Each structure stands twice: as C-alpha cells, then as structure tokens.
Amino acid sequence: xxxxxxxIFFTAMIFNLSAKEHDFSIGVSFGMLNGRAQEIVYMNxxxxxxxxxxxxxxxxxxxxxxDIKYSWLKxxxxxxxxxxxxxxxxxxxKTGVMEDRDWSAEEIGIDNPSWLTHYxxxxxxxxxxxxxxxxxxxxxxxxxxxxxxxxxxxxYMHFSWTASGGSxxxxxxxRTGHISIPEDINVVIYEQTWHIFSPAISFYGEFNRFxxxxxxxxxxxxxxxxxxxGHLSENKVETLFTDYVKEGIFIEPSFLFSYKPTxxxxxxxSFTYRDINKxxxxxxxxxxxxxxxxxxxxxxxxxxxxxxxxxxxxxxF
Length: 317
Description:
5% helix; 317 residues; 13-stranded antiparallel sheet; 13 strands; mainly beta
C-alpha cells in the first residue's frame, strides 16, 4: 500500500511539473575557466603600495558541473518565480604559472617603494576547485515572450594551488642573482574560499520555438574571503598566513544562448566573466614550529578574475 501511495504521489508530481506553467530541468555542463587569482600584501594598513603580489594562473582549468532549475509562470506568463543551482568541479592539474613579485626596497636601503626588487616564476598546479551558484528571483513579462528577471545570487568558490620548481631573479646587490629551483621542490601552497551575495538582473528573450537568449549582470560589495598561504621548507609548512578579507567590488556579466530541438532537451552555450578586486583585510601570521602568532591589520588583499566558457545539456520535465 505504501508503495502504491508513493507511486501515485510521484506520478502526480511529475504530471504537475509537466503542466504548462511549470518548468523543471536538470543537466550537466562542461567548460573551462581562463584567468587567475591574486594574493597581495600591502606595505602598511593605510597605503595601496604593494609589498608583495602573487598571481596564480587558471590557464585553463577544465571543469564538469551539474545544473538544476525550476521555474513557475502564472497563466499567460505575466509573472512567475524561479530558482536554480549550479555546481562545478575543476580537474586537478597544471594550470600555468605562479608569479611572485616583491617591492622590498626599504629592506635593502633603497629610497624608492615602487622599485621591484624580487621576481620569481614557478609551475602552478591547481589541486582542487569547486564553484557553486544559487539564484532565487521573479520574472515579469515585458513584451510577448521577453522577460525581465530580477533575482538574488549567492556564490561560493574554493580553490587550492601548489607552486613548485621554477626560477627566481634577485637584485645584483643581494649577491644571489638568478636561482633555479628543482621541479620536485614545492615553494608555496595557497587557497582561497569566497562567499559572495549579490543582487542581479537578467533579460530573457524567446525568438521562436528553437532559440532563446538570456543576458545577465551582477554587481555587489558584499564579499568575504578566507585565504591561506603556506610558505614551505623541505615541502613542509614553515609559516602560515591566513587572510580575512572582505568587501571590494564584484562584477559578473553573463550570456546564455540555448537551442531547443525538442520540448524536453536543451543545449546551451554560456559565457561568463567574473571579476573580484579591492578586497582587503587582516592577516594572521603563525610560525608552525613555535606556534607563535601575530596579527597585521588591513595589510592583506585578494582578487580573482576569469572567463568561463561552458556547454550545458539539460533535460526538461
């Protein structure tokens, strides 16, 4: 009896979703990110002059994802509600290089804070990557089958990298000059975890039964990030820096073009540009061997920018 009740309920639910005003879809996505993350140390809490900057490449980072969407439109499609979630997993592997720049002029007696004193480049491996996007909003008919859709978004991103090998260039007066680093020596490990809340708006247009587009834009200062930088010695963490940065500027324009050969299958091409900059905060420095720690206020920064190209195949119910 329980099985029969469950079957009736499940059948009714599917029938209800398949009604004209309901649209439920689930799909898989494949794509790649092309960009980089930024790690900054400022000279002090009041200036924008950099003491150190590390750039971590994502060139490119392939990923696989899962896309789930539900929308409900009132009769005549004059307005409705929708919710969707997207999760992406990046493939571990080499994704370019990590560049490290330092402006330590004062330490070596040069009265010029903009003088680049140290530069190194290393192989960069993305160890892990996960991105999640959740949207909740409403849609309003503005002209025939064209909709305006204001909504709220939450974005989560986590990346971890390892820099190894490479070479370093130091100034001649340091008496070290050029240094080569063996490929099997890890130099730095780094990770970023982002939380972003943003208002957004999109414009959806259905040109005919087969094709539609959606153009969206987001911008917000509501940004939080925890970043961890581990300086290594003999492949072990010697000093750990934990940055707590917030605010800044997040922008994301996106474009989605879809082809619908049948009522139950959709193939989409997506393009998204995501940029985060001017986030800044405090740093907790911990010496692992002695367990001593210090806090530097408002001297750390973090950033991220990448282009996302994707292909999404979805089944509608």
